Amino acid sequence: MEQRKLGRSGLTVPVIGMGTWKTFDVRGQQEETHRQEIVKTALETGANFYDSSPMYGEAERVLGQAIKNMAARSKVLVATKVWTESDEVAEQQYKNAFKFFEGYVDLYQVHNLAAWEKRLKSLQAFKEQGKVRAIGITHYSHSAFDELSRVMRNKSVEAIQIPYNALDREVEKKILPLAEELNTGVLVMRPLGFGSLVRQSPTAEELSQFASFGVKTWPQILLKWILSDPRITVVIPATSKIERMAENAAAGDGPLFDPDTREKVSRLAAKYS
Length: 273
What we know:
By secondary structure, the protein is of the alpha/beta class. The protein has one domain (about 5-270): NADP-dependent oxidoreductase domain (TIM Barrel, Alpha-Beta Barrel), CATH 3.20.20. About 40% of the residues lie in helices and about 15% in strands. Strands 3-4-5-6-7-8-9-10 form an eight-stranded parallel sheet. β8 (about 160-165), α6 and β9 (about 185-190) form a beta-alpha-beta unit. The longest helix has 16 residues, at about 30-45. The relative contact order is 0.16.
């Protein structure tokens, strides 16, 4: 799988990783063992970048335990987030994350810019202590992109996480050009639009025109559409299916789409959404 530098952070990550929103918010041995198999599949396919958050319920704990059970912490990259206006709650979130992820977090992000000034100071202190390797910020809403762009200029911010897919291209206007200017890493959430982009699929004939790029399925095509933008560092689709994790990872292999091919994909996305 192709590897890219996460901006100026010093980290190198695979172009396809794995999200944990909703899919890893589980309890019980059977469900958690199944999630460990997904984590294992991601690691085996080269998609060894995992993203989580305390707002995802049990996801941090389940992800951390899976990595620990596999004795794989040194082989993976873990991203998580702090998400609260409360300083007291933030301290508990930090404590939990360092416990779940064996003492350090590779990319620690301020989720949805909540109390970002205080949180960036804390994360910078953790970085100086060796508990955090890189610092980022996130937001899902177009209405927050002006604020996001302002915070991106803070010197401690080395990565951003934003929504981007073949139908949601708002970040192309301002956020991605600024990320390129600042040499900021870019993580992509919602690559399949909450699943709305894959509820219907183009015909087999329509899909076949992308076979030379090493992708066969519609989800793979949509993922490759995103990572074919060189400003993107890593795409983090979430799944609760082992076979889907392997399918997602395969989108990180083979040649990238040229601009004309990307536009073909965008037209198909509009047609089938």
